[in-house]
Amino acid sequence: MDSLHSTMNQHVKGKHLSFEERVIIQTRLKDGYSIRAIARELGCSPSTISYEVKRGTVSLYHGKQQRYKADHGQSVYQVNRRHCGRKSDFLKKADFISYVIKHFFEDGWSLDVCANRSLAIGEFSHHQTVSTRTLYNYVDQGLMTIKNYDLPEKLKRNIKLHHVRKNKKKLGRSIEERPKEIDQRNEFGHWECDLVLGHKTKDDQVLLTLSERMSREFLIICIPDKTFASVMRAFKVLQKQYSEHWNDIFKTITTDNGSEFADLANLEEVSKTLVYYAHPILLVIRELWKGTMALFADSFLKESTSITILSNRSLILKPGAIHYQERSWHTTHQMKSSKEN
């Protein structure tokens, strides 16, 4: 069978030779084909065939004859493949690995802190350490005594790829329409809003949270449930208490497109406040809310804690501390006035 009627798939440029192609090389050499003729048939460079013939040639009849064998060429290829690629530095960095394990368990350092602090204080040089990503890879590979269950934050991360549905519901202005200047946190009055659930039972209350982007101050209000009616009643109370200062304090409110905020866009009809709805997966726009709520949950919302016990109080949260305060909404206004003065 000549090359014009070959049933073999054409060789892909840049790909390694397969065992079937090595069999063809062996057969064509036996038939007296030249290196260039075999290369034309397989669609690869003549030098590729030449190197393959040298690697796969064996001595027969007590060294009296040299002949290419496809199976020997394949075995040599597989041995060489096992030796290619970048080698792991795990054994070379044993001192640094011991340093990481010690401070992780004894001092509670994260892997990122271990990797960067060792460089910052000069205990190790760059060629003696590995990156944070490499440390996590070592954990995944089981090379360290640190296991994934020792990294609770890692287990919480959702690494799945998400896609925004084309037919997603639209409750109002999209977050994509929000002015880019708001992301700079240079102006007071731009808030992010969400709900925090407790026991998720019918009789437990819900926390309505509002975070101001520039000052990073939080307002937290207990509401009876997570319905849109309860949310709107809370905002009406806020609007009444702030009265003429409402438009200056609440310039924009950004929230997700959950059904509990379905009527929030109605605030635009009775005030100058603009409401923006974010996609549920765009957590990056709520990094402040996410971090502070984690602090709040660790401090107050333990497994045995019900939100109902906070029903007669409001909370004002600041980064690094949580303060109780009786229900009084003039605090944010005073803070704004002091900043302007």
UniProtKB/TrEMBL annotation:
The keyword Signal is annotated on this UniProt entry: no
This protein's record includes keyword Lipid metabolism: no
InterPro entries to which the protein is assigned, alphabetical: Homeodomain-like_sf (IPR009057), IS30-like_HTH (IPR025246), RNaseH-like_sf (IPR012337), RNaseH_sf (IPR036397), Transposase-Integrase (IPR051917), Transposase_IS30-like (IPR053392)
One GO-annotated biological process of the protein: DNA recombination
Keywords of the record: DNA recombination
One family name in Pfam for this protein: HTH_38
Gene Ontology cellular component annotations, sorted alphabetically: cytosol
Transmembrane segments annotated in the record for this chain: none
Top-rank taxon: Bacteria
GO molecular function terms noted in the UniProt entry: nucleic acid binding; transposase activity
Transposase IS30-like HTH domain location: 13-56
Record protein name field: Transposase
